[in-house]
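thought: fold this chain, then report.
action: predict
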Amino acid sequence: MTVNDDVFTNWKHREEIAESMIPIIGKLHRERDVTVLLHSRSLVNKSVISILKAHRFAR
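observation:
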């Protein structure tokens, strides 16, 4: 396995996690009126890439 494969595998894993967060965040917002924030950035109605960018900003 090369370094590129490791990077790609890591990226796909992060993408998968962000994709699984979207319905949970939406449900919290609709049913409980909770706005999920990451360092003052809302994650409600965001795309996978937007969630990953917000996480990168917070790190």
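thought: worth noting. The beta strands are 37-38, 41-42.
final: tokens above.
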